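The freezer alarm interrupted the setup, so I double-checked each line after restarting. Inputs confirmed:
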Amino acid sequence: MTYLLHSVIPQRLCATGTCLFFPYDPVLLPTIDGGKMAEVRFQQISKSFGEVPVIDSLDLTIADGEFFTFVGPSGCGKSTILNLIAGLELPSAGAIFFDGDEITNVTVRKRDVAMVFQSYALYPHLSVADNIGFPLKMKKIPKDQIKTEVAKTAESLGLGDYLQRRPRELSGGQRQRVALARAIIRRPRVFLMDEPLSNLDAKLRIEMRAELKRLHRQLKITTIYVTHDQSEAMGLSERIAVLHDGVVQQCGTPDEVYARPKNRFVAGFLGSPPMNFLPGKIDRKNQAEVVVNDQSITIPTNSQPASGEVVLGIRPEDVVISTADGHLTGEVQTVEFVGSGSWVELRWGEMGLKGFSARLTPVQPGERLSFTIPAEKCYLFNKTTGDRL
Amino acid sequence: MSEREGSPVKTALVWIGLAVVLLLMILPFVWMFVVGLSPNSSWTPSLADWSPANWTLRNFADLFSALPFSAYFANSMIAAVVVTIANIVFCFLVGYAFARRSFPFKKTTFFSVLAVLMVPPYVLIIPLFILINNLGWYDTYLALIVPFAVNPLGIVLVRQYLRSLPRDVEQAAEIDGAGPLRIIFRIVMPLCRPALAVLAIQIFWLNWNSFLFPFILTDQNVRTLPVALAMFRGYQAVDWPHLFAAASLATVPLVVLFLFFQKQIISGLTAGAVKG
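Predicted 3D structure, all chains:
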């Protein structure tokens, strides 16, 4: 048996002075099977529940050791994809491969995957130690070895003092770490994580996000993560796939998907606050002009839809709000102060538009502000298909 | 005093009301014990009978010397315990299958189980007697156990309880490498403990008190306690002190059961009343 050096998690203090997670010195992480990983490939995977299609012709390859995230709104089929990989659901069509070997009809137990559930899914009648050691017990590993592995894994996640407790005696964050410990203890080929942080409060979520990233860097196990939180997806992943109605809308690195969204759905889903969309019309060849209250913005484009109608997209952080006289003006509707400035909702003619004001003196509702929409920051979408032009 | 507790008068009234109800509930039991301990033969204890100084265990001793009371007690205990264990196992397995597994005619089968609930037990008296007699089980433990080894209400209880539990834990066990039997007995069964505790208490209580079917399906060999109690009533008179002494002893297992499982009994009574 070998051990991975787990360069730990520095001691941190929260604002109240209470010790947060992982106040431990470097420890060793156990590696039961030597840490074999898998490339996961979907080949034309479709899944329907009765007449309702959930996943439609998914073709995708997730590389060995990659941190890959499926992100999308509720009901888009992302958890179903995890269930298909785990074997909890069988696809209606298509095949799934681990390292080139088809596992579509392989039983759940033989797939060698580990899953962290949104609900943690701990065994309530077992102690923390028994929960963590359960997968090793199923592998018929000797009791002494299980004990050693459990102690090391628990220690690495700051659970050393809680081994004899029952899950109900732990906080949400501690339960989450027990679920993680149970998953990492046997070094599976693939980690599956189904919204594992969604039950935690905002502060804990950020802590755990960093911890997940660190664990992945150390264990290098293929990790497939599912979330509806786009900031979590972009912060954690090497690549993300944006899902909508069971179809992958776009797959790529977070910055790629954010900066070059393929369609209006992806552009609107990624980013907080979401992108502004304004209706416009192309009135000259190769140029799109959005006309509102006789004010216009001209954006160069290489293609144009037959109808000439387009949707202009601009991210709120790219709408430059200033007090200086500008080309465009709007009336402040709502203001969200965020410390470094404010998100300001403007009424611009008949339209609503969100922008960022770096002004530190508070902006007041009803105030009239000038703003500019830089043409180079704008995206144009086909009004009918939603595809980016 | 917190606002929630209300005024002292209101609190006092609530306590008085509860005390009256408690007295009404407990009085018959106290009465039964006092008559059982009394040296007289009347069912109404005299004032002197309420004094512990006059109490005697003679009636209790008579039960064991003049009658095979311990045999009746043992018969009741064996039947109730075995039926309870059988119900826990069978109702759990059947309820699990209905809640978690897919099989042909599942709905029809479940509705047929529900339909059994609607059959009044009295309708079964004659067919059950003929069946038991033809099987050669009359006046044997089999007659007391086999017909009652599974209860449709227990199946429904387990099924409904399991349907209210998320499947995540079972799925986690499957992913962790547990086989179907281990998942059923080591994961799901402990999760069902509250429902199974309620079921066990109910079944034990029903069988311990059961009179009609043991009366019809047994005779001297495996006579149970409730049937034996009825034998204290003669054509001319009722032997009240011995009857009450026997009844007092018969309540002991139930009292013990209730003391140990109070929490489960209450949770069973309120199950489904509050959306959890």
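Quick read of the result. DSSP finds 14 helices and no strands in chain B.
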